[in-house]
Amino acid sequence: MDIHLDPRSERLIEQQIRAGRYHSPEDVIVHALETLAKTEPARWDERERRQAVQEMLEFTGKYGFTLGEGVRIRDLIHEGHKY
Prior knowledge:
Layout: H1 7-18, H2 25-39, H3 46-63, H4 73-81
């Protein structure tokens, strides 16, 4: 796999190696990816997402939950699906 980095990213990797934190660019990349995997929120699969939405809709219906005039829970859920 070939990876092409911008000059800033290359400098960051070089700084880490010069500081003695890593032995190679590969070490820096591997550590960065492992850190990303640990810190990135777990992604829900579609079934879990649909279940959460259904539970939210049931809650709002049961307790008459509103967000204020002109704002609907369904609109917020729709917005959330964009991301």
